[in-house]
Structure prediction request, 158 residues.
Amino acid sequence: MRNPAVAPEVIDPLNAPGAYGDSSPYLAIFAACMGAIDLETEQGARQVLNAIHDTGASTADRERLTTIILAIASSSAQQILEDMMATIEWKSDFIEGFHRQGAAEAKAEAILKIIDSRQIKVTGQQREQVTSCTDLTQLDEWFDCALNADTAADIFKD
Prediction:
C-alpha cells in the first residue's frame, strides 16, 4: 500500500518548482543546476538569484552557490545573471562580496610573495593564516610589516 505522505518530487523542465513556495530555496538551486529552470530568461535568473539570497547562508556560501550556478550556465545565461547581479538590487549580495574576496586573495598573495622574496621562514600555519584571512585591515598590517621584517615574528606580532 502506498503511503500518501511520502511521494517523490519530480523536477524537470515541465515540473520545476515555481517560486519554490513552501519548498526550500535549495530545491530551486538544484532545479537550476539540472536545467529545470531556464537561466537564459530573466524570470529564471531572478528565481535562482532569489533562491540563493533566500537560503540565509553566509556570504561565503552564497558566493559558492553563485559560482556553481555561473559555472553550469551557458554564456548567454551567465551574461543575464552577471547583469542582474550588477544592479542595485543584487550588488551588495554578489558583486561586493566577490570584490572583497578577490581583494583579500590578491593581498594575501602579495604578502606571501614578499615573504618568499625576502627569504623569511614562515610555518605552514602562518601561511594558512595569511591565505585564509579575509580581513583587509589585518592583511594590510601584515603587508606593511613584511616589507621591513627580518623574521616571521616581525610580521605576525600581536
The radius of gyration is 22 Å. Residues 25-88 form one domain. Residues 95-117 form the longest helix (23 residues). The chain has a mean pLDDT of 81.
